[in-house]
Amino acid sequence: MITLTTLQGEQFILNADEIERVIHSGDTIVICRNGMRVRVRENFDSIVNKSINYQQKKHHMPVLVNDKE
């Protein structure tokens, strides 16, 4: 999940797995798999970085520590 901001200043959470495309044409527009389009304040690079960080955290395997030794 990533946090984004609408042009009106409202923050919302978006499941980054649902992002189909991000377009920058004046405004930054996030297009989701279900066809929903949202104009956001974040720039293109910020959304890409947030999405990459989300995927890295999602697929990171926790390190198990054995305290009995």
Description of the structure:
Helices cover 23% and strands 36% of the residues. It is α+β, with helices and mostly antiparallel strands and 69 residues long. Strand 1 (2-5) and strand 2 form a beta hairpin. The N and C termini lie far apart (37 Å). The mean pLDDT is 91.
- Strand fraction band? 35-45%
Can you give the helix content as a percent range?
Answer: 10-25%
Could you tell me the radius of gyration in angstroms?
16 Å
- The overall average pLDDT, rounded, is 91
User: Counting H and I runs of at least 4 residues, what is the number of helices?
Assistant: 1
Distance between the termini: 37 Å
Count all strands and give the number: 5
Which spans have pLDDT < 50 for at least 5 consecutive residues?
Answer: none
Give the topology, please.
Blueprint: E1 2-5, E2 11-14, E3 19-25, E4 27-32, E5 37-40, H1 44-59
Antiparallel strand pairs: 1-2, 3-4, 4-5
For this entry, give a set of tags:
two-stranded antiparallel sheet, three-stranded antiparallel β-sheet, alpha+beta
Q: What's this model, at a glance?
A:
The protein is α+β, with helices and mostly antiparallel strands.
